[in-house]
Design brief:
Number of strands of chain A: 0
Largest sheet of chain C: 6 strands, mixed
Distance between the termini of chain A: 25 Å
Shape of chain A: globular
Number of helices of chain A: 8
Number of strands of chain C: 8
Order of helices and strands of chain C: EHEEHEHHHEHEHEEH
Largest sheet of chain A: none
Structural class of chain C: alpha/beta
Distance between the termini of chain C: 31 Å
Oligomer: heterotrimer
CATH architecture of the largest domain in chain C: 3-Layer(aba) Sandwich
Structural class of chain A: mainly alpha
Shape of chain C: globular
Strand content of chain A: under 5%
Mean pLDDT of chain A: 86
Largest interface: A-B, 27 and 33 residues
Helix content of chain A: over 70%
Number of domains of chain C: 2
Radius of gyration of chain A: 18 Å
Mean pLDDT of chain C: 79
Helix content of chain C: 25-40%
Low-confidence stretches of chain C: 195-225
Number of helices of chain C: 8
């Protein structure tokens, strides 16, 4: 219960700071909209090619938005030395980390709340509840792993260089499976496709669990000496 | 501190000689392997001379994986026990493993192009992707080791990358393999196929042994150089402390 | 920064001033005592517990104020304290009294970034005693403290063991029982600083006898003991 309390407190604190500071969310939203507009022109999208390219564009935007979000969330703590202040309490690194990851997830989800409708409008992407559920599922896994490496990279001299280098090889399986899952969802595959093993949703869920466990175990070593 | 004069009781000199001898053996073994590959092994009927790349390619891949297993063990040893040896071993193995991964990757590409008529834009093989991911992960390991605040922090962070990276490789392999079964591309047979004539198997084993030895020697040399550097640094720091806290002419 | 071998023992309720030039190792020592850093070698026992194990339990009994504030600029003074109270597993109601103790009751709802540096430092002090720690570790707390803040220190130290690094000799003498002087990472022989031809290693204070400290003990007597 203490774990949950700390996690929620940290996430709430992050969101409150973001609401007051208003730095990250506008940057993310701007990035998302800009990406879609450019994609529209660059890929010469129309009513037929839009839906076909949608899964790929969705993941492209999500990965880069994620990199942006995770990097900033730890950089901000580093600037004021508050990460150490949090660690010097009985709260514990795993719970603190979970709170940061949860906060980042919520921010990304807010970003997706703009992205998905925008895609429906500009790219004629078929956005269904299955698509939304898939994207949410993927966001959680990405956020947890992304935040772990963001916390790592924030302690080094070249944060912007290291975060993509570290995170991308680990995100490959995610993107591969997630992209397929979104594809299935967009071509009408509903939740009936959840149960059978080997189906993209199931594999996505497996990855989520794997990454959540690995990140939580590693958090202690990354955040604290 | 006086340097230990070279002589029968000089441990560093003896160590140097041992490693040099081992290196000589490794080079000799590689020459033997070269003979085995180009002279002893028969030419493949289907693939022609290009097939000979296979021996070195697979041997390098195995050596690279061996190195990364060492990185994993060294990283775990550091995280659990604070073992400096583990960290040093991990660094050495990561450097050498990266070299062998590069070799594996390049050879794989050179081999695939004529044999499978492989078009990189059409399909990404699971092995290819995993190898590329492996390369990036361990390059990341070394980058973190270099760019983090030096000392225990750099060791700790790199060790985390070393452990997670190793776990990721089978995941990458599995996911691309899973994806590829949905997108059948050109037929990818296992290198060499299951039915290899005996001389080929022998040639492969010889090559693998030679490459393994070479790999081990390289790691040992790398480790030894780093250990000496660390020891010299520790001595310098201790001397600095002595000097700085000397009484100021009371 | 490397610290040479150091033998240090502190009795319960004792107050130690750590003196020395910049770069002498004061910060490194204090961070070790606060469990913000891990010793590379040697044995560190804090409050009867071996410092590298059970860090979370130890941190519940330690308070630390370092060079960085570790507080959130976008949150108000009260919100900052409430957050850290939650991390300590305490109720939010602990925040308000702590705020009053350092005289910041009037600016409870002002954001941190709108407070003066002296007020911010006082808030950091409040945060360090929020959980009623047994040991307080302060790294040059007087550096940014206003006059009000400096008066507070004595009250905050009440009933706790304190290790305080400072350049202010008068402050140290007024508040602490003994001193440790560091030079190049090692203990230097003349803690209270002035070179002497001979005689006792601690100079008796000028003035009419030792100044009584809030806990009833006299600084002068302790130092010579």
């Amino acid at each position: 219960m203490r774990f949950a309390g700390v996690m929620l407190a940290v996430a709430a604190k992050d969101l409150r700071c973001e609401l007051r500071g208003k730095e990250l969310l506008p940057a993310l939203t701007q990035f998302v909209v800009l990406s879609l507009v450019i994609a529209g022109f660059a890929f010469d999208l129309d009513a037929s090619s839009g839906p076909r390219l949608s899964p790929g564009i969705l993941w492209l935007v999500l990965v880069f938005a994620g990199l942006l979000a995770f990097g900033r969330t730890f950089a901000a703590e580093r600037d004021v030395g508050s990460l150490e202040a949090m660690l010097l309490t009985p709260a514990g690194a795993p719970a603190i980390f979970a709170g940061k990851a949860l906060g980042a997830t919520v921010l990304l989800v807010a970003c997706e709340a703009v992205l998905l409708p925008a895609m429906a409008v500009f790219l004629a992407s078929p956005i269904s509840p299955a698509v939304v559920a898939t994207v949410l599922l993927a966001t959680v896994g990405m956020a947890w792993l992304g935040c772990l490496f963001a916390a790592l990279a924030a302690q080094t001299r070249a944060r912007e260089l290291l975060l993509p280098v570290l995170a991308l090889p680990l995100w490959i399986p995610f993107v591969v499976v997630g992209s397929r899952a979104v594809q299935v969802a967009m071509s009408g595959g509903g939740f009936g496709a959840w149960a059978p093993a080997g189906q993209p949703y199931a594999v996505l869920l497996d990855f989520d669990i794997l990454f959540l466990v690995v990140s939580s175990l590693a958090a202690r070593f990354v955040l604290d000496d | 501190m006086a340097e230990v004069p070279p002589g029968p009781t000089d441990p560093e000199g003896a160590e140097n000689r041992r490693l040099t001898a081992l290196a000589g053996v490794a080079v000799a073994a590689m020459l033997v392997a070269g003979w085995a590959i180009f002279v002893y092994a028969p030419q493949d009927a289907l693939q022609g001379p290009v097939q000979r790349i296979f021996y070195l390619h697979v041997a390098s891949a195995v050596a690279a994986f061996g190195c990364f297993a060492v990185v994993l063990l060294g990283s775990l040893a550091f995280l659990w026990r604070g073992s400096l040896v583990g960290d040093r071993l991990g660094r050495a193995a990561a450097h050498v493993g990266l070299v062998f991964t590069t070799v594996t990757f390049l050879m794989g590409v050179v081999w695939a192009k004529p044999i499978w008529n492989w078009d990189p834009t059409r399909t990404w093989d699971a092995r290819l992707t995993s190898t590329a991911a492996l390369w990036v992960i361990y390059a990341g390991y070394l980058l973190v080791r270099r760019l983090a605040p030096p000392g225990r922090t750099a060791m700790r962070l790199a060790a985390v990358v070393g452990v997670i990276g190793f776990v990721d490789v089978p995941v990458v392999y599995f996911s691309v393999e899973w994806w590829r079964t949905l997108h059948p591309g050109p037929v990818l047979t296992a290198p060499g196929g299951p039915a290899m004539p005996a001389p080929m198997v022998v040639a492969y084993l010889v090559t693998q042994a030679a490459v393994g030895l070479l790999c081990g020697v390289l790691v040992a040399i790398h480790y030894r150089v780093q250990a000496r550097r660390d020891a010299a640094l520790a001595r310098a720091v201790a001397a600095q402390l002595e000097l700085a806290s000397a009484p100021e002419g009371r | 920064m490397v610290l040479g071998p150091l033998d240090l023992e502190l009795a319960a309720g004792e107050r130690l001033a750590v003196l020395g030039d910049n770069g002498a190792g004061k910060t490194t020592l204090l961070r070790l005592l606060a469990t913000a850093a891990r010793p590379a070698a040697g044995r560190l026992e804090l409050l009867g517990v071996e410092a590298t194990r059970e860090r979370e339990r130890l941190r519940a009994r330690l308070g630390y104020v370092g060079h960085q504030l570790g507080l959130y600029p976008a949150l108000t003074a009260l919100e900052n304290l409430e957050f850290f109270a939650r991390l300590h597993g305490l109720g939010r109601e602990r925040a308000r009294p702590a705020l009053e103790t350092v005289g910041l009751g009037g600016v409870a709802h002002r954001r941190l970034e709108q407070l003066s540096r002296g007020q911010q430092q006082r808030l950091a002090l409040a945060r360090s005693v929020l959980h009623d720690p047994e040991l307080l570790v302060l790294d040059e707390p007087d550096a940014s403290l206003d006059a009000e803040g400096r008066d507070l220190l004595g009250a905050l130290f009440e009933g706790r063991s304190v290790v305080m690094a400072t350049h202010d000799l008068a402050l140290a003498r007024g508040l602490c029982h003994r001193a440790l002087r560091l030079r190049a990472g090692r203990e230097a022989g003349d803690p209270w600083g002035a070179p002497r031809a001979g005689g006792p290693s601690v100079r008796p204070r000028e003035g009419a006898g030792p100044v009584p400290l809030p806990n009833g003990r006299a600084a002068g007597a302790r130092a010579l003991g």
